[in-house]
Amino acid sequence: MTVFPPLLSRRLWGRSFDSPIILAGGTAGFGTELILTDGGCLEGVAAVVSKSVTLNPRAGNPPPRIQETEFGLLNSIGLANPGVYSVVSHVLEQSVNMSCPLIVNVAGETEDEFARVVQVLEGSPVPWAYEVNVSCPNVASGGLPFGSDPRAVERISRTVAGVTARPFCVKLTPNAGSLVETAVAAQEGGASGVTVCNTFLGMKMDWKTGTTLLRKKVAGYSSPALLPLVVARVWQVSQAVSVPVLASGGVARGEDILELLAAGAEMVQVGSRLMRRPHAPRELLQEARGLLE
Ligand SMILES: Cc1cc2nc3c(=O)[nH]c(=O)nc-3n(C[C@H](O)[C@H](O)[C@H](O)COP(=O)(O)O)c2cc1C
User: Fold this and answer.
1) pLDDT in tens, 230-266
2) For the chain, what is the domain count?
3) 246 in a domain, yes or no?
4) CATH number of the domain that 120 lies in?
5) Ligand 1: lining residues by beta carbon, under 6 Å
6) Which residues of 164-196 are buried (b: 16+ CB within 10 A; e: fewer)?
């Protein structure tokens, strides 16, 4: 039951946290990169979501693949990562001493790949939980995101639930199909939560030449201006499912966190803001506490 104004101390999957803030997938590496540069970046952070991990290594899309716009950020990183075997043998061990738990984000090119990646990750004691990124393109069905088909999301959730006892949430896409239907399907498939939501499709043109600024052309757009779109989706989804909703998108102020919690989120992810303000979690938490006081 949501209490108003919302409390900043939270419970997720049996653990208690003083902060609702989770670092969003792909914006904080595996968390260890932050510790190496400045341990203070993890202050106020309840958990870190890793960048998406796939079965095989991926170089991602050719550059340029990130572009700042006047009010936001376009990215088409294309799931660049060293592949799950390398992540398990070389990367995760460095996250052991991190001050907060790690949620490993998994992606796949086929429906089966998600569970195969999770199976390999099960060999490591490090992941606390998983986030299943169904926003990536389903190669077998013409490149539409898996998340555009609720039945595919239900099947993926079911196969993942079949290979792990760890909690996992499904990260939904706002770009195709009904987000509410897909969230319900994820829950029916056995997901322990849903993340609402991934980036919105966007593009930046060079009007002088007719080319796009990013090589991949259409990219994922994140911006504080999208906050009301995310608040609406978090509210709609939280009315429809009983599993925790993790909000993702548009957070730039402490007040945004309180708003997403009031709309029904259990936890709130922070992504692009970290690129401007690496200490954003600490600052956001202070702001939110100040407002509540
Ligand atoms: C540079 C960049 C890389 C991202 N990489 C991933 C990724 O690998 N997997 C994923 O599920 N989401 C990825 N995202 C999406 C974020 O996790 C987040 O859902 C989105 O940016 C919205 O939150 P924000 O407005 O706080 O940035 C990425 C976002 C950015 C900006």
Assistant:
1) 999 999 999 999 999 999 999 999 999 999 999 999 9
2) 1
3) yes
4) 3.20.20.70
5) 24-27, 51-52, 66, 73, 75, 77, 79, 105, 133, 171, 198-199, 222, 248-251, 270-273
6) bebbbbbbbbbbbbebbebbbbbbebbbbbbbb
